[in-house]
Amino acid sequence: METKQTLEQFEQFVIANYGRLPFVINKGQGSRIWDADGKEYLDMFPGWAVSGIGHCHPKVVEAIRRQAGELIHMDNTFYNEPQGQLAQMLSERSFGGKCFFCNSGAEAVEAALKLARRHTGKEKYKIISAEGGFHGRTMGAITATAQPKYHQGFLPLVPGFVYVPFNDVAALEAVFDDEVAAVIVEPIQGEGGIKVASQEYLQRIRDLCDEHGALAIWDEVQSGMGRTGKWFGYQNMGVEPDIMTLAKALGGGVAIGAIAARPEVAASLVPGTHASTFGGNPLACAAGIATIEAIEQENLLENTLEMGQYVREKLGQLQQKYPVIEEVRGVGLMLGIQLGQAGAEIVSRCWEKGLRINCTQETVLRFMPAMNVTRELIDRAIGIMDETFGEKYAGDNGNGF
Ligand SMILES: *Cc1c(COP(=O)(O)O)cnc(C)c1O
Prior knowledge:
Bound molecules: pyridoxal-5'-phosphate
Strand order of the largest sheet: 4-12-11-10-7-5-6
Number of domains: 2
CATH architecture of the largest domain: 3-Layer(aba) Sandwich
CATH topology of the largest domain: Aspartate Aminotransferase, domain 2
Shape: globular
Order of helices and strands: HEEEHHEHEHEHEEEHEEEHHHEEHEEEH
Oligomer: single chain
């Protein structure tokens, strides 16, 4: 099918809620994708942080094939083996919690918020979240997302939410009281521009929650599943939550979300309180198991740390050359490049040269390659970025294009 045909079809039949680039992607493998004309691109933001171990990882493909031939879906009237196995794998790699499965990040956030209110009881209802955070697009999740642009046109929001500046201990202390049910934050804000929570901040949330009988929720939808070189982002700071949310890279590309909760907390989600028809289905869980196995068998946590270090060196060199790069920040392969100017044009020029990166919050380039990325691919990507920055910024005031 020609690109033009697909675009026309979308124009007529698909709701235009995304600002899409006019390209049709038909194939992906590892860190590479191909459009309908057969042009190849290097993908340094694979699947918007979903394809964490690259597109169509052979182990995930094989697991899906195998599971599809056995049982694709079975409702939660019964037990199924992949769901139990994946829950055990997540629990053993985090803080010994119990899991509930759903299908997306926003659903995981909803589950966490509902569990927090349910568990802490009716005197407690407030949910504190941090400015610049992002938690998804359902009503509860946009309310937790303390960014006005996501609220426009959707008022009134869910009652009981309180917003505080991110990484600000004093502001947190000022609003905390016995009516707080939970605090939800990302250990590393993703959409908010790759901002890393300090160890002190997470610890203070932990302590205040313990003092007031509230729950700490770490939203690991983007920072989890090995992205930072540890299984979960919080393990870099060493402060455990009561509930953690997961999605994005959990299924190696297949839609799946989850929460893990400390067993005492998890006990509050008794039958009838929460559910998901698709949640924990054998197909998605088999993909999740294969993803975790691939990360371990191929030493991808180690590779993430090594490649993360390598990318930082390379980006450091770019920063020396181009003062418009104000800062490079992040952990592992969750990296942000803070620009002094808007980054959209850099992203589209890179795309024309065959490189996919992302820009968030207008001025932060997100560089989040697959965990199995190689030095060679990084070199190619950095080479294209160097060329692009050179065309725009070298030796003048940034009007090069
Ligand atoms: C992407 C994201 C979500 C929302 O996930 P969806 O699957 O799009 O609903 C929630 N929290 C964080 C931290 C995210 O990055």
